[in-house]
Design a protein that fits this description.
This protein is 48% helix and 13% strand. The protein is of the alpha+beta class and 166 residues long. The protein has a single domain (5-165), classed as Hypothetical protein yfbM fold. It has a five-stranded antiparallel β-sheet with strand order 2-1-5-4-3. The N and C termini lie close together (12 Å). It comes from Hymenobacter volaticus. It holds the Pfam family DUF1877. InterPro entries: DUF1877, YfbM-like_sf. This is YfbM family protein.
Length: 166
């Protein structure tokens, strides 16, 4: 089973309801949404996080928001969605994240790729330095970064919160 990450736009009210009543989370994430409300980061999530923060699991805010931001919806024991509980970022946090992502150029993002360090830090899906087609890997991560940047920008522009889960 592969580890994938989904980022979903929600209202602050929906996020508050989920935080207050975390037992609703399973039905919520299984409910259908329109294509522009959800972004599947697939397996790129950990590489993105590393290239945004230089870290494996934490890092400076707001760049670390994919893995280390927001508030947990419930707890690990009762509300695990596969790889832990979902996390919610309020619309205020989404605005900070959008501004940070907007300030990072595609060229600067690409320059942060470091396969040796990614392997050393065990960045999923592992073995970055063994990839034969380096340009394709960097392009995959950069394309996903641009999709994330646009998605978060749209959420911020419409004053939406985000739900992040794996």
């Amino acid at each position: 089973m592969s580890m994938t990450m989904t980022v979903r736009k929600v209202s602050d009210e929906q996020l508050r309801e989920l935080l207050d009543e975390p037992d609703l989370i399973l039905d919520f994430v299984d409910s259908p949404v329109s294509a522009n409300q959800e972004l599947d980061l697939d397996k790129a999530w950990h590489g993105l996080h590393f290239m945004l923060t230089g870290s494996n699991w934490d890092g400076p805010e707001p760049f670390a928001y994919l893995l280390d931001g927001g508030e947990f919806v419930g707890n690990e024991e009762d509300h695990d969605l596969g790889y832990g509980p979902a996390r919610g970022l309020t619309s205020i946090a989404v605005s900070r994240f959008a501004a940070a992502l907007a300030g990072l150029s595609e060229l600067d993002f690409k320059a942060r790729y470091d396969s040796a360090t990614m392997d050393e830090l065990e960045i999923y899906p592992l073995d970055w330095s063994k990839e034969e087609k380096l340009e394709e890997i960097v392009e995959w991560l950069t394309t996903t970064f641009k999709e994330l940047r646009q998605f978060v920008h749209e959420a911020a522009a419409t004053n939406q919160a985000l739900l992040i889960y794996m």
